[in-house]
Amino acid sequence: MDVLKVILTVVLVLISIGMTVIILMQEGKGNGLSGGIAGGSGDSYVSRNKGRTAEGKMVRYTTILVIAFMVISLILNIL
């Protein structure tokens, strides 16, 4: 049982590092104040096809890593 805890802890640390890197690589979601003033509609080709871009893939990977982080954290808490 102790070996399983060590393995899960190492995996948890690796997932944490991966999440940190991916989150820091992502762009901001909001247009901010200047986007609202300039009249940016947000309905462009890029915004409609966001899931196919590199940014969309990073969001998907972030979601997967967060779910894995939560599951492994719960498993470690139970053990």
Automatic annotation (TrEMBL):
Q: What GO molecular-function term can you cite, just one?
A: protein-transporting ATPase activity
GO biological processes: intracellular protein transmembrane transport; protein secretion; protein transport by the Sec complex
User: Where is the major localization of this protein?
Assistant: membrane
Q: Which UniProt keywords apply?
A: Cell membrane, Membrane, Protein transport, Translocation, Transmembrane, Transmembrane helix, Transport
Q: List cellular component terms (GO).
A: plasma membrane
Q: Per its UniProt record, what InterPro entries does this chain match?
A: SecG
Query: Which residue spans traverse the membrane?
Result: 6-25, 58-78
The compartments listed are:
Cell membrane
What is the protein's membrane topology class? Answer: Multi-pass membrane protein
Concerning its family, UniProt says:
Belongs to the SecG family.
Describe the function of this protein.
Involved in protein export. Participates in an early event of protein translocation.
**In its UniProt entry, what is this protein called?**
Protein-export membrane protein SecG
Q: Which organism is it from?
A: Hominifimenecus microfluidus
Q: Lineage of the source organism?
A: Bacteria, Bacillati, Bacillota, Clostridia, Lachnospirales
Q: In the UniProt record, what gene is named as encoding this protein?
A: secG
